[in-house]
Amino acid sequence: MLNALWIVLLGMAIIFAVLGILLLVMILLAKLVRPRDKQEKKDR
Amino acid sequence: MDIATGEFLGFLNLTWQAVAMLVIGGVLIWLGIAKKVEPVLLVPIGFGCVLANIPLGGAAEAGGFLAVLREAGIKTEIFPLLIFIAIGAMIDFEPFLQRPYTILLGAAAQFGIFGTFFLTYLLGDGWLHVLDFSLQDAASIGIIGSADGPTSIYVATVLQSKYTAAIVVAAYSYMALVPIIQPPIIKAMCSKEERALKMTSVAGTISQRRKILFPIITVLVVGLLAPKATPLIGCLMFGNLLRECGVVERLFLAAQNELANIVTILLGITVGGMMSGTEFLRPETILVFILGIVAFSLDTVAGVLLGKLMSVLSGRKVNPMIGACGISAFPMSSRVVQKLGLEANPHNHLLMHAAGANVAGQIASVVAGGVMLMLVPMFI
Predict the structure, then answer these.
(1) Closest approach of A9 to chain B, Cα-based (Å)
(2) A1-44 residue pLDDT tens
(3) What is the pTM (predicted TM-score) of this model?
(4) Cα separation, B174 vs B308, whole angstroms
(5) A24 touches chain B (CB under 8 A)
(6) What residue numbers bound the domain in which A25 lies?
(7) Treating both helix axes as pointing N-terminal to C-terminal, what angle do B111-123 and A2-43 enclose, rounded to 10 degrees?
(8) How many domains are contained in chain A?
(9) In chain A, what residues touch B214 (CB-CB under 8 Å)?
């Protein structure tokens, strides 16, 4: 039973950690890519 | 075989289990055709079930075509992965990219998987020993909460659960029942004022460069942190890259049409072929279906709870109902929230916000499947 509890706790922690990091990367990507798109529009 | 006694005749070899399964197969076909409940899946599954339970037919016995399909497509995990390429090609992740915070709602809504896993294990080998549920079976049953048929098949197959057929049928059936399961839970947890809360629309569109980078980066991040999820997230994101890169239209169309249709036919009939009376008709199967509802309900509760927290932290800018869409039953869950929002306030259009959480839930459920595959062998 303790094993199952560990799986629950670790599982949710890992999911939040992985998706939290993905969220940070997505926010970073949004900041990095957006200015270049604006520049492209200006060039056009 | 005695010709005089007619032992070669199928109906003389009918057992009560075979009759029951023929009825169940018929009900699945009826649900698909007459009630339009996930017909694309339930019709092939129902028909496969009928074929597998015709005595002396041999379709699902060693060497029979359903057994060959099972060996080639399910046991090798190929069918669910191919389906993921098709799903990736079908999903537009723009609503999520516009609201990346919704990934946290997807994460919270995976609690249904782990909560149900814990409950199942307690009923089985973990404590009560009431039913024959090992750690692997409990994990495979919990994964019904991913609200994602291919993930359920993949995890149950890799963990070699005894209840794979029941798990798959439950996972696909309950996706169609999301409009029935979710509204009472959401209404019980959110007041009318909360349901009426409007969210501001997100300005601007996502550039194609971001849409192309998204699947590549997601595979790298998820794959490097939760490597067991790599086949699932890899196929999902590969399909999405075909969609977004804009230079392989033929492949993109083939993935979302021909590939999706062919694999759905093969997967459906093969899963139906796994529903033999002796394997399917046991008390545990009924409990698998009950635990499936528990999993979907816990998903919804956990998602809405985080939605409420986000609503408070954002100064009431987030409608807590969109948390319920962290479950990856796309697009049914989004439609449920849109409908509830409009009921509470006729000017409250939440569909795109809900869709963001819904596609985020698709990614989260795949990660949850990979995490389960990573953790369970460590504790056996």
Answers:
(1) 9
(2) 889 999 999 999 999 999 999 999 999 999 888 655 555 555 55
(3) 0.91
(4) 25
(5) no
(6) 1-44
(7) 170
(8) 1
(9) 26, 29
